[in-house]
Design goal:
Four copies of one chain form a homotetramer. With 342 residues, the first copy, chain A, is an alpha/beta fold. Chain A contains ten helices and 14 strands. The first copy, chain A, folds into two domains: 124 residues, NAD(P)-binding Rossmann-like Domain (Rossmann fold, 3-Layer(aba) Sandwich); 162 residues, Dihydrodipicolinate Reductase, domain 2, CATH 3.30.360.10. In chain A, the strands form two sheets. The first copy, chain A, has a seven-stranded parallel β-sheet, sandwiched between helices. At the B-C interface, strand 8, strand 9, strand 10, strand 11 and strand 14 of B face strand 8, strand 9, strand 10, strand 11 and strand 14 of C.
Chain lengths: 342, 342, 342, 342
């Protein structure tokens, strides 16, 4: 049994990790830390876990996580970069669900995240945890940077086209829509029910932190810098991301075949039949990305539709997937969940 | 492995049964029938099941279900009463998720359901499938009438008080609120998103079919006829029932203790701590009923709050629980699911 | 033209007052104050008002509201009681949308609101602004306590029965459901979209501040103290209150006739035909209370359904109605709005 | 007073027309026809209109609409083309809210709408009712083709760029999101609450009927055929369209200035300040299109955000605006409504 710890865990990625780990056949949840909730039972904060998770939040002191084989950071940005080193030095493997280790260029990171990086020396060893790209590296990694939610949906949607060199990578467009849980559990006016329900809006058009992360991943795939316009939107659903991707074709190919081949061996990417329109609810609660590829009116514009549950394949589920790979477990262990529909 | 068949299964209780059975460790899904969808792959109708359920709907002909150990009817009212007999005669056990066998008094049934009962002779053998009341009978039953969603939430909420003779059973009040999936997947104007979203209303105040079912169960518990006012409401959530129950106390007791004792051995009834307000989302996707009991301002009025997921503990989950009991499996097998929150 | 001022006004009752006053033919909006938003254009905070309201928030200094004929307090509880006196002394009439002057018994108020009342000497002159009860007094009032949202829906629903002495007033039950805007625009975790959407729960079962307000109003109508169990619930809609009221009949009467007579001359109370189920959306954005009265199964229990828009008839609309009465305007002036459906 | 009639009117554009006309100071609603609802009171079907609209649906016979000055068709596609001629011949002006007269090329229309056009000879006289483009022609028109909801939002968003010749019109992209009321009030499974709530999906990627309509309008503005990729999505809100538009700049200009100039004299187009993100709720219930223009990261890609209420500026409100223009009334008469927020 893998002994797992969680740092943070009072937010939505935290409760989702707990949901998954509570039923993971190969994992024992050892400890969960929270500065603000010491002594609170996890199941008191999240009644959905009553009878499933019987531990309390403990203080993030030195010893709390000793004895763990792996520690997940379900913290705001800027925490893991301060605390990961000590854990790694103690032989504990680390999976960061925040953004601290996602961007290889520390200057870019510091510009977009507005703080100084506390531990740039770890960036080289950190592996970007998108299994469909980095599975072998993840297996050997001690520190995994779990991808952002938008970057997971957008990269998985664009990768086959970009890797195959079939599109103009100077003018990629990603029009992405996210459910409100992507904003986390912070109490902010803009995410109140009465503000976000029955409402739709774009945000961050001038620039969003996931832009450099997506650009980094697609540039590696393209073997050259890509140009990307990324427009995120807030849509009134709890869970779910729908990315609508646009690119100009520069070559010819059977796009359906291209996608099916690329993901033939991926258990968590589902290429839907030609003509499909994936729905976010078809992945609600599940660790899967469903993709459909279109070429409307046989024009030169390809349209890719890509959906995930932002808290599962876009966060906690992918983190568990990475853990499974790191420890040589069945990749689907504990995350082989049928989505909840309706 | 239990071999299971489903009759119907194109509606919400159907897809929920499929979600649960697809991962049940002791069950193999043998066949699913549908008159209208013969040849359609189940996963085409319900994309959430892609990669999980690989069978097609077949015609409800004689042989389709032969070889099954158990058949679930996820059909409209009035189907199972015509088809159950043949299956039972063939030694197949039957669980009806519709209302055909729930009411023991055929006259009452015919009045409320507006049709003649096709098979009243089975009513005597049918067992009302509320495990918290009838576990022993269910274990031996060949035909189980799975309770309605409202009746499950209301009866589990009232039972401790009524069994203990602590309340005036002439004036029970059940103010119940249901998510829209309780209305099923039929295309009716009133359940369109644009009608039901951002809206709240009562319905069926003059009389709802679940009234006689609840009254029957509570009368058995009270050992005398009970008087019940039952007002159902439609609330804009997909899944969930919240029953708010009111009764006048006629005796004195530690109500918290009463409820905890009554359900001490029930794995799917969770009596919450004193002062709690159970939320429907705390049971979303899970097979549990959470209950809290209040006595506001120390008055003579007791208020019980009872929540379930109408599609799980209120339908498919309870059906699987009944199957587990009937076949001597672990009662929680396949339905030991952590609810999805948020 | 009446010159109106608003104190507060950054919350939902504030923006709703602005929506109504912006189009009121007899009112000129003179000033709006806010401690935190001095200098912000109103239409910057509320883009729905772009092109309609061209003023800025000003500091709540002495002179800001001089010259007004009437001032609305759209503030949290505890502000109006400190500031109303000075305005009244300056000959300005005051309408408080908060709770400061709603309860006549200062001890009761202080117990439920948890603070000392700053101006109990005004309580005697304050008029409870429910026009259907106090129209004549409102016309002459200088200080009007605008009713709470739940109290408006519950009192209008119960009044005909209680005034006629037809029900047991020791055991009234009000099961009320509110949209989330009733909680205001404060950033609190519990009212986030991801917490409140697709969820239903009771709250404050042990005691809610609107209980003594409702009890006061119904006791006056009954000419004796009433016993009331009041259970509020949070339901995922933005606007709307649905009160389901239960009482035991002690006398006999044509209930439909009773309600129609009681409200025959009320332009903002709509008694629906017998058998109706009023929907919250049928009053969305309008200043009307729709009521239906039922007696299910001819039992001794009467069930009343009462719906309002909590921000209109439950707050800002009723405040404008009170202003119209106070200044001898047409009672419907500026609030004669057709609800928005769908 | 203009005497107005409505053909159809049992759907959402119908009830919205009724809401607007009920309060229009210059209009008297003379008759409303419906084949299926003859004799039903309008306010029985739409309780929001109780006390506001006192007429019944009448049969669509010859005389029903005689005496009207203007008739609105709030019917499915294919009705107005059969009935408009007789009305026009009788000197009654006609505004069709459906698509029958929107496309000038009858072949294109017949291909996309899948039926033969019953009255192509009227197409030449029909004026496309987008006031911001065709105000003068509308003033003189006897037959106005009211634009579709998507086409209104997309054209108003693109027009300044296209008219100014500043973008590559071969590769325009319109990623549009609509609330569910856009699908009308037909009972279809896909638009049930339990299907459309908490869900997001694209649809019609291969081709949507609004594509040729948008292309026609933009081609006229560009004075050459344009290439457009149009992807509509269904988002869980009742009302609202959010169009996110992408184009490659071919020239240089102050885009903010360009938009503000273009719409300087338009009372129903609101160009928001630079950097804005218009929300659909800021136009809920109002007849306004709010637009913001962005150029993220100073790239060559311009991003335009355009929001409308699909039932108002996208349907009934624009129809009334057209009527006002046709009859020389104040253009804002009866539609000068403050949007409902929250």
């Amino acid at each position: 049994m893998i002994k797992a710890g969680i740092v943070g865990g009072t937010g939505y990625t935290g409760v989702e990790l707990l949901r998954l780990l509570a039923k993971h056949p190969d994992v024992r949840l050892q400890a969960i830390t929270s500065r603000s909730e010491v002594g609170t039972r996890v199941s008191e904060m999240f009644p959905s876990l009553r009878g499933r998770v019987d531990i309390e939040f403990v203080a993030p002191s030195a010893g709390a996580l000793s004895g763990c084989d792996v520690v997940f950071f379900a913290t705001p940005n800027g925490i893991a970069m301060k605390e990961a080193k000590a854990l790694l030095d103690a032989g504990i493997r680390v999976i960061d669900l925040a953004a601290d280790f996602r961007i290889r260029d520390v200057g870019v990171w510091e510009k977009w995240y507005g703080m100084q990086h506390a531990c740039p020396e770890l960036l080289e060893d950190a592996v970007y945890g998108l299994p469909e790209v980095n599975r072998e590296k993840i297996a050997k990694a001690n520190l995994v940077a779990n991808p952002g939610c938008y970057p997971t949906a957008v990269q998985l949607g664009f990768l086959p086209l970009v890797e195959a060199g079939l599109v103009d990578t100077d003018h990629l467009i990603a029009d992405a829509k996210s459910g409100v849980s992507g904003a986390g559990k912070k109490a902010e006016t803009g995410f109140l029910f009465s503000e976000a329900a029955d409402n739709f809006k774009a945000y961050g058009v001038a620039g969003h932190r996931h832009l450099p992360e997506i650009r980094q991943g697609l540039s590696i795939a393209a073997k050259q810098p890509v140009g990307l316009t990324f427009v995120p939107h807030l849509t009134p659903l709890i869970r779910g991301i729908h990315a609508t991707l646009y690119a100009q074709l520069t070559g010819d190919a059977d796009l359906q075949q291209l996608y099916e081949s690329r993901y033939a061996n991926e258990c968590f990417v589902d290429v839907m039949p030609s003509g499909s329109h994936p729905e976010t609810r078809s992945v609600r609660g599940g660790n899967v990305c469903r993709i459909a590829v279109h070429r409307p009116q046989d024009s030169g514009t390809v349209v890719v539709l890509s959906v995930i549950d932002n808290l599962v394949k876009g966060a906690a589920g992918q983190a568990v997937q990475n853990m499974n790979i790191m420890f040589g477990l069945q990749e689907a262990s504990g995350i082989d969940i049928v989505p909840l529909l309706p």
